[in-house]
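Readers of this paper often ask what the protein records in our data store actually look like. An entry from our holdings is shown next, in its original layout:
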Amino acid sequence: MIQHSPLILSANDAHFDIIIKFIHNIVSKIFSVKIVLFDLDGTITDSSEGIVNSIKFALSRLGFPAESTEKLQTYIGPSLHETFKKHYGISDTAHAVETYREYYATKGIFENKLYPGIIDVLEMLHFQGYTLAVATGKPTYYAEIILKHFDINHYFSAVVGSNLDGTRADKRDIIAEVFKQLKYKALEHSATMIGDRSHDVHGANQHNIPCIGVRYGYSVGDELIEAGAKKVVDHPLEIITLFE
């Protein structure tokens, strides 16, 4: 039986640096944190029915004329306070949002469905070692209910949205809170945002991370491309190909 003596290298050995770099690369890949942030409405779930019905309910209660479903769908994404103020000139947006939630909290939240293939995306990214998080303009309270309702909450290491009082509604601040919870460090980790509206792209850009735009959500025209999305996909399963 042939016995081999262990390989012992000194710092002066010609191959020492090469081997150390090789080991470092392996360890870096094993322990590096790769974060993928998902928007919720229009990216993970098709929540248009519930949101539109809730807006219609609020507008009716507040005395505004009925709006078409198609028009109201374009309002999905930005904060409700912004929507009621910008499109209807409502100054007391807190009351408008409270009225909206009379319907949404018990009915609208469940008038919702997962996009076909999105669970496969979450499963594949999770299997590949990515740390997944939700960064949504929807209040965190409702986002957590939705994720549990569809039994997908276990995929996410952080779920961050706006506050119920309307604060922390800007996507930049929401992403910042995700990074804070995950102890993200730009020089050590990598991150990618995935969302369906221009504010997702802008929020990502403000943190110097790329954003993948999903056109199957509620984007209007070429807003994702114009906002600077790194890639744009038309189906959830296309997301997986960008991480292979």
User: Anything to note?
Assistant: Residues 22 and 28 are 10 Å apart (CA to CA).
